[in-house]
Specification:
Layout: H1 3-30, E1 47-55, E2 62-71, E3 77-80, E4 92-95, H2 100-139
Helix pairs in contact: 1-2
């Protein structure tokens, strides 16, 4: 397979993976304060994403893929909020196991990886276009 076409396939798989990661991180941030509906009910549980690689049969290149979407099993923390419908008899509410600072760092990293893959695609397309222009000039 053509190395330029393989580059497009690899970067495209990176875009897909990072797009999924951006969605998962955004869901975590959006639900960082989502509690249960009733006293003692579990709140939103942080979602996780695991990447893997696989051989793309068409290009022969190793591409990234989403191996698994999971759930973070770490403990919830509790806050005192007696007016919350999810508060127990002591006024404590289970809060999601989402750390917004970590999610923001993941969001930034994912956004940068997405941009890097997008730039790879743009540069590869420019190289293909330049190659075609050279071939057109050589045939004239």
């Amino acid at each position: 397979m053509d190395p330029l076409a393989a580059s497009l396939r690899i970067a495209g798989s990176g875009l897909e993976a990072q797009s999924t990661r951006l969605r998962i991180v955004s869901e975590n941030i959006a639900n960082s304060r989502t509690t249960g509906d009733t006293p003692g009910a579990d709140p939103y549980r942080r979602k996780t994403i695991t990447f893997g690689s696989e051989l793309d049969k068409l290009s022969g290149a190793q591409v990234v893929d989403v191996k698994k979407l999971g759930i973070d099993s770490s403990d919830f923390h509790e806050e005192y909020d007696p007016g919350n419908p999810a508060a127990d008899a002591k006024g404590m509410v289970k809060m999601p196991n989402v750390n917004v600072l970590i999610e923001m760092a993941d969001l930034r990293e994912s956004n940068r990886s997405y941009d890097a893959n997008l730039q790879t695609i743009k540069q590869t397309r420019e190289m293909i276009s330049s190659t075609l222009d050279l071939l057109k000039g050589a045939s004239q």
